[in-house]
# Entry
Amino acid sequence: MNDIIYNPQHPRTEGKRELAGMLIPVQIKTTLKKNAIGTVSDGDEVFVSNGALCIDPEMRCLTKFEHKAGTTQGNFVVSGIPKGIKGKGLRSERYLLYGNWANWMYKKRKLPDFEDINQYYDPGNLKKVIYLSTSGPYSIYDFRLAKLSHLTYREIILGEFPDPKEASKVVIAERLEDLADFLEETRKWGIRPIRLDNLKYNWKVLIESAYLKRMQQEKSAVQ
# Structure
């Protein structure tokens, strides 16, 4: 085993700062309620917030790394490993995280705030989120909004996201067609869009899977 990236038994372990902002494949090994411990390609251990919500049959997921309080830990991004992403993953400037804000998802006001977003997605540290509403694009900050209707998607992509080494680059859209157009423009600039798993949906899948498994066990016992 190489240097431990993060292990709850060793909270003072110095993390690997160079991984901050990177998106790396992780093999989930142990679940801790909704979180998990996994390993990266060189065998290092990593703590993954919400990692227990991975619904990949092989328990592999993409994890976004952040450096906090002397340790480097991960945030669960998506179940499975998208095609073309290898063990070393993607550097912070090479990807963008995206999600869809469906009608059934709760928000306290007209637009979601960071707390609302974190109920459904785990993108890591947020400083600004680009939100494509039906009335146009916005920047969502911690305590304020800024309308971006005067900017093109190209201008938003190149100038409105935070430094990816300090905070996650995230776009969320209400309409899938707006999201598709935005992501198409993103790819033109060599930035790979990565879908965020919806945590509530994954919970539902896992609960239904556990229920079906229990029903099958009970049926087998009766037979």
In short: The mean pLDDT is 88. The radius of gyration is 19 Å.
